[in-house]
Every structure is written in structure tokens, then in C-alpha cells.
Specification:
The protein has 98 residues and is α+β, with helices and mostly antiparallel strands. The chain has one domain: 2-Layer Sandwich (TATA-Binding Protein), CATH 3.30.310. 33% of the residues lie in helices and 36% in strands. The chain is built from two helices and six strands; from the N terminus they run E-H-E-E-E-E-H-E. Strands 2-3-4-5-1-6 form a six-stranded antiparallel sheet, covered by helices on one side. Strand 3 and strand 4 form a beta hairpin.
Length: 98
């Protein structure tokens, strides 16, 4: 299933915060790497059946992908928990599409 959510992680964070968030990226299951500075991938790329990608947008950090609901929810929950610790504020969903 196609999935998408936006998190309250601003595009204009300090470089130190982006460094901490990159550590979270690498620690997450399925980490592949960066396509560009603003786009990261887990499990596969857009053309692969199962994938998650992150893009930095003015609205926040957008995570989108293709995977079943249960796996998506578990992965997003872990990402939010780790990001909240790393960034030292409550990261939360500000919009999603399931």
C-alpha cells in the first residue's frame, strides 16, 4: 500500500540538528543511503515494490513509501521515537495519508 506522512521536523533546522537526524536515518531498519542531500531511502528506491523515502519540504519532513500498514506504522513509530530523542523535542505527525 502507498503510505505518506509529514512530520514536524522543519527544513530550516540548524546543521547540528540535521547531523543528529542523519544518525537516526542510519539507525533505522532498511537503511540504504542518500540519493541527494535532501532525499534518503530505506528498503529500496521509488521504483522498488517495498521502499520508504524521506524528503525535506517546507511543510516538514515527508516520509513516503510502499509497504503494508502494520510494517509502516511500526517503522514510523520507531522513527518518531528516535527522532524525538535525537532532536530533544516531541516529533509528531502533522499530516498523513494511508
Amino acid at each position: 500500500m502507498e503510505q505518506e506522512t509529514t512530520l514536524n521536523i522543519p527544513y530550516n533546522m540548524h546543521e547540528e540538528d540535521w547531523f543528529e537526524l542523519r544518525k537516526v536515518y542510519v539507525s533505522m531498519p532498511g537503511w540504504i543511503g542518500f540519493e541527494s542531500e535532501d532525499c534518503a531511502y530505506w528498503f529500496g528506491k521509488t521504483e522498488d515494490e517495498m521502499h520508504i523515502e524521506a524528503s525535506v519540504e517546507p511543510s516538514g519532513l515527508v516520509l513516503s513509501g510502499f509497504m503494508d500498514d502494520a510494517a509502516w506504522e511500526k517503522w514510523i513509530e520507531e522513527f518518531i521515537q528516535k527522532s524525538s530523542v535525537a532532536l530533544e523535542y516531541e516529533v509528531k505527525e502533522i499530516g498523513n495519508t494511508y
